[in-house]
Specification:
Layout lengths: L2 H10 L2 H10 L6 H13 L6 H8 L5 H12 L14 E11 L2 E11 L1 H18 L6 H19 L7 H9 L1 H6 L4 H8 L5
Antiparallel strand pairs: 1-2
Helix pairs in contact: 1-3, 2-4, 3-4, 5-8, 6-7
Amino acid sequence: MDLKDIEQNYARMSDDDIIKIATTDANGLRPEVFGIIANEIQKRNLNPDLMQGIVAQNKEYTYEEIENYANLLRNLPCPICGNTNRKLNGTISYTVRSFIIITTSRAEPTIACPDCLNKKNNNAILSTALLGWWGFPWGFFRTPVYIYRNFKAKKENKLEAANGALLSYTLSKIGAIETYKDNPEKLKQIIEIKNY
């Protein structure tokens, strides 16, 4: 696609589409496209910090830089219970549900306070233990593995430093975090629990 076609494509997009690309989908964009998006952002009078999100997604980071971004999230109130006394961390809750010949599995990231993270893992363990076994053959094999993964994840929920789940989540949302690093309300939206 040549630059003129790319420019026309971005001109046809909605503001929401431009914001989504700038905050979450800009990884790997060609450098010459940055100017096209910058022109669209300026022409539409969108938040100029969106360009920082694009640059952030196309940059290499040190471990310390990722920790600094993670600390922006750690200092927010818990999105589940609202607690502000404990630093947030991350977990992955693993669930398996089986129904005779159908087995579904899911790994869901959550950013919350340690107590809420433990509840998420405990609920996943209970759900998997009750509903995971009933599919042949995958339910039988996945259920003990996913229960083990939840117990392993729980060990990291109360770490004083940002754990692996939080650092991984932070890196996946780095464009949005960079864009909204000075806006706590927008940062809260990045870690909100999604209902599936």
